[in-house]
């Protein structure tokens, strides 16, 4: 039995999908999705070889997730910790994408961002919106995060729509690494107000 089957994995229920912390066995799915042309075009930093991805998941992403979750359990102050969660279809337990939060150094403080990707074969099913809303709810209900950011390439129309559906407010354009992004923010108070509607 693998180590991850001995421990209960962190999970956020999002209806017909769920978010779950990365495991080593997810590395191949992350590798395949991150190398899809539709994903690589908007998230080139996620492209890797299979060996790189296994190494990153094992030595960086799993320990960083554990540190984030430990910070939430012990003090709710997540500082600059990173959380990377897989998006899974509930009916099949298939890994179909990821939804993450971490610091975006190119943005002014507070600069915690949310980002996501869904496999091209599962686009237009609302999974990115459900996953993002699930992670937003978790962060605002369980951590000290008061503001979340999202940056989306202006030409990535579907992702801009996801962010807007999640209640983010357009702040303006941001130049990062010679690319123009739309910059959105969502405050905890704005999220609470939208949740009450």
UniProtKB/TrEMBL annotation:
InterPro entries: Acyl_CoA_acyltransferase (IPR016181), GNAT_dom (IPR000182), N-acetyltransferase (IPR051531)
One Gene Ontology term, aspect cellular component: cytoplasm
Molecular function terms, GO-annotated: protein-N-terminal-alanine acetyltransferase activity
PROSITE patterns documented for this protein: GNAT
The organism's place on the tree of life at top rank: Bacteria
Residue span(s) of domain N-acetyltransferase: 17-191
PANTHER family assigned to the protein according to its UniProt record, in alphabetical order: GNAT FAMILY, PUTATIVE (AFU_ORTHOLOGUE AFUA_3G00765)-RELATED-RELATED, RIBOSOMAL-PROTEIN-ALANINE ACETYLTRANSFERASE
Protein name per its UniProtKB record: GNAT family N-acetyltransferase
Organism: Bacillus cereus
């Amino acid at each position: 039995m693998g180590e991850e089957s001995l421990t209960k994995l962190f999970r956020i229920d999002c209806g017909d999908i769920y978010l779950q912390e990365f495991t080593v066995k997810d590395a191949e799915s992350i590798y395949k999705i991150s190398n899809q042309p539709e994903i690589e075009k908007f998230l080139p930093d996620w492209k890797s070889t299979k060996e790189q991805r296994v190494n990153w998941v094992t030595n960086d992403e799993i320990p960083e997730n554990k540190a984030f979750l430990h910070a939430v359990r012990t003090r709710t102050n997540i500082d600059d910790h990173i959380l990377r969660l897989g998006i899974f279809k509930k009916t099949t337990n298939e890994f179909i994408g990821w939804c993450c939060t971490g610091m975006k150094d190119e943005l002014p403080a507070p600069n915690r961002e949310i980002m996501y990707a869904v496999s091209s074969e599962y686009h237009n099913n609302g999974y990115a919106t459900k996953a993002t809303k699930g992670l937003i709810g978790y962060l605002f209900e369980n951590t000290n995060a008061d503001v979340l950011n999202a940056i989306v390439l202006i030409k990535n129309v579907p992702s801009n729509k996801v962010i807007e559906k999640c209640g983010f407010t357009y702040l303006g354009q941001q130049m990062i690494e010679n690319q123009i992004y739309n910059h959105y923010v969502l405050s905890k108070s704005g999220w609470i107000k939208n949740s009450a509607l």
